[in-house]
Amino acid sequence: MNRTDRLYALVEELRVIAPRPRSGRWLADRFEVSLRTIERDINALQQAGTPVWAEAGRTGGYCLDPSRTLPPINFTAPEAVAMAIALENMAGSPFEQAAQTALRKLLAAMQGSDAAAARELASRVHLLGPATALPPVPALIADALSARRVLRIDYQDRVGATTTREIEPLAYVGTPTNWFLVGWCRLREDIRAFRTDRITSSVMTAETPEPRTLRAEDLTIPYGDIRALKTF
Fold this sequence. Notes:
By secondary structure, the chain is of the alpha+beta class. Helix 4 (77-88) runs antiparallel to helix 5 and helix 4 (77-88) packs across helix 6 (112-122). It has helices at residues 3-17, 24-31, 35-47, 77-88, 96-109, 112-122, 139-142, 144-147, and strands spanning 52-55, 61-64, 151-156, 162-174, 179-185, 190-195, 199-204. It starts with a helix and ends in a 28-residue tail after the last strand. Helices cover 35% and strands 20% of the residues. The protein has 3 domains: 3-68, Orthogonal Bundle (Arc Repressor Mutant, subunit A), CATH 1.10.10.10; 77-122, no CATH class; 139-218, Roll (SH3 type barrels), CATH 2.30.30. The mean pLDDT is 83. A hairpin with a 4-residue loop joins strand 5 (179-185) and strand 6 (190-195). The longest helix has 15 residues, at 3-17. It has a 5-stranded antiparallel β-sheet, with no helix packed on it. Strands 1-2 form a two-stranded antiparallel sheet. It is globular and about 60 Å long.
């Protein structure tokens, strides 16, 4: 079992027994690894935001908060494959990495037989064309909205001139050929849209700016009508 599979299996093992704990030694024996490996895995899960913690004492161990985890998901195989096809379209977007982890979480949460059926069905689906149609979005830019921090970027315009700017991220706009990060530009003192493939470097500062309101009329990118993402 590779590490990624083991991390998801660890979460599922703790979810099944929650809110009771599992000892590190029990988990090490279960997954045939060292106790030190389990400790590193738990730390990785905690760093990723998984609600798992250590409970001290003779009967202690690692616990998972059941109120913040999902029960087995009863997706059918066609539904899971439909989601995989939709998530395939996230390649080159700010949500590419999130789409990959979402699909792994979906499969890990499904009943074993349903997940196996989904994998078998997926093996019969093929896509024509390049896997990544858009330039990849740098990780800091992909995390810009959720991090809610000021970014310092070097931006190259259409003629190749580079400027350094501090921006307050406000939105993403996607076109068939590019993704834009929309933000308040402190250099121009106005809202600007930055093509992500023209951001040559980026640094996330420690500053959390005051929230700004973004109106529909602020999204003036000359590539057609802009539509909002469907809510869920």
